[in-house]
Amino acid sequence: MKISIRRKLLFYASLILFISGLTGYAFYKSNQKLQDSEQWLQHTEQVLSQSGKILSLNKDLETSSRGFVITGDSTFLEPLMTAQKIIFTNIDQLSQLTQDNTAQQKNIDSLRYYVHQRLNFSLQTIEIRSKLGLNQAIALVSTKQGKFYTDRLSQFTEDIQKNENVLLNQRKQANEHSVFIFNLLSVGMFVLMMVLTVFLLIATGRNFVEKEEKENRAAELMIANKELQFQNEEKENRASELIIANEELAFQNEEKEKRAAELIIANKELAFQNKEKENRASELVIANEELKFQNEEKEKRASELIVANKELAFQNKEKENRALELVIANKELQFQNEEKEKRASELIIANKELAFQNKEKEKRAEELIIVNEERRETNEYLENLLDCANAPIIVWNTHFEIIRFNRAFEILTGRTEKDVLGKSLEILFPPDQKDNSMKLIKETLKGDQWEDVEINILPVNGTVRTLLWNSADIMSSDGQTAIATIAQGNDITERKRAEKEVVKLNETLEQKVIERTIQLEEANKELEAFSYSVSHDLRAPLRHVGGFVDLLIKNSSSQLDKTGLRYLNIISESSHEMGDLIDALLTFSRLGRTELQRMKINSKSLVKQVIKTFSDDIAGRNVEINSSELPDTIGDEVLIRQVWANLISNALKYSRNKEKAVIDIGGKIENNQVIFQISDNGAGFDMEYADKLFGVFQRLHKASDFEGIGIGLANVNRIVMRHGGKCWAESEVNKGATFFFSLPSN
Amino acid sequence: MKAEVKRILIVDDSRKDVELAIAALAEKNLANEVVVAEDGLEALDYLYKRGKFVHENGDPAVILLDIKMPRMNGIEVLKHIRADEKFKLIPIIMVTSSGEEKDLVESYKLGANSYVVKPIDVVQFLDAIKVLGQYWAIINQPPPRSLL
To answer: Above 60 in pLDDT, residue A549?
Structure first.
């Protein structure tokens, strides 16, 4: 069956319409997918920035608490307060961003947990720092708990970012695939449309041929022709309309082609942007890791430096002590040297004198040949002189044979001159030192003079004596050769013994000091154990009395009359009072035991901080506090802070009945001491009782006038005394009081 | 925000102190699920469900741990708990009768979460719980154990 040309044309036209519709749809879809990709990219960026913000807030937290721990300055805590307020809101926002992703939600829960733990740890550190001081805070920090939490939360942030990037990639790939398919489809359909248009043109051509045949036949069928001609004309009109329609379609196709090319370019641009953003994200991840690593390194280095500093401080102190000892030893040595120099110069003079005398004697001997008698007398005189000398004197010849041995020597050795004359010097020395002593003596003949040479002598009774020797050569009459040597000894045995004793005594003394220190340490430990036991065991029954009386008041007060209830209230109050007294005593005893952590104290800022803590007491009162320049000082900051707190609190307390309280705080340096003072215009006290002021539980006012248990000034006194300083006060009843305390300035 | 404390384990050798603690907790309706261990060893017995606690079940939401106790003191119990994977996340509040500095420092070093001084002040206790409870109060479930 032959299908009419018209129908064919109609069929082609509707097919082209349908396909162009499909192409349009494909473009619409591919565009939608591209928009989709863009939205996901923005979403990922939001997640990355949000998690980065949380990390940075956590860093603020850490830096802030670290700053406070190192300096104790509460202004460091401001960033922590801010971060604490908003960090969980930020985590909630992050959680909302990834609401549809259960894996991310799990990670965010863990992140929230560790941020929370990290925050708690910082708060604990801050509490320890402000309550127990720097060292305890450092001890807590060095448990590395904080670092553990930070590592964890950084790990989870990284996971969240990683997951988000992976997700983005997956979605992007899927979208790119769809865009590709849709683009392919549009190109395919465009080609199909072209083919169909060609078919339509051919079909239209064929239509014309058929029309000519019909015109030939029309000559025969003229009447019917008109009808047909009319029909043909109709068809012609329709065909030209179709041509116009075709042209319109072709134009639309071209437009679509252009649009497709533009979209392809746009796709490429977007793909490029995606890649750029991906690169940026991975760079950020690397930068994050690097920062994390640097932080860890710095934390480590800081804790190492703290340890090294302590070690250096200890070594410095040791070296200072040693230097002091050395200075003393040096002075002693210098003194001894001077003494020896003096003695040496005296001996040189004596030697010269002796040499001179010898020469004189020789000269005189020649003269004495003539006056023999005179010589003999002189000889005798000299002999007597030798014998009368207190010091042992000996003369030996060049063969080291004894030729003169004075009386003092006889007494020293228990030998007589008769026994030793002509004998070798060796017999005088202890056998084991004989060779060494002889060697020393032989050196004199080589021309070496002795000065203060120490040689031991063995007397007959066997008790070795130590002598300090000085010698001189006796020269022949021509003065060229030595014919004998004269030596004079000085018995220093007793001195040596005394020296040894001193050394020994010193050693015992040191031992005694060590023993005493151990005893003191033990006593200290016992005291500590005692107060620990007091604080636990003494308090327990008291706590039970107070606790159960409170319960009784709470639960059974309706069964008691007014008096009974009053008694119970008194028991309760008294047990709380006793608890306070025990606490105060324990604090007082602890003040005497804890080791001082000395450091430089900025007095002005310390006092400012302390005054700030009393803002509640000052509020509603008319108080004027004047603080002049305060010198810096050295001491345990925690304890000195307590001193200021007690004194300022007292000044505020005892001036509260005045219409306007005026408190003046000042300080000055005097005789190597820093002296601080704080005065008020309050109740004051009678100077007659001034000596009781700093005693434990001593009060100068009635409890009904001014509350308190009387431990504050005792604590102040103990702290100041432990720093090597002093406390005192001046006052007049109702005219205010001035309290002073001094601290060594170095 | 309301802290959801389900079960409190009180470890204290003094029956009188335990009674005072329960009275204080009862004031805030917190004493419904209190378990008492009379010293450190009993505390571990409760956690591991042995000895006189062999028929019990469940973990405490928070532990109030006295420091000075016979047989095994609070510091040792703390060490045990923090070394056990199963229990290391349970919040522990140390209870001290003195506030002695060295006890507190050691407790914090070993991972205690907070401390209160006897007699237990319930406001102080709730403050401590509030800080610890923040996390669970937000997500309403304990943290995943697999994380540690």
So the answer is: yes
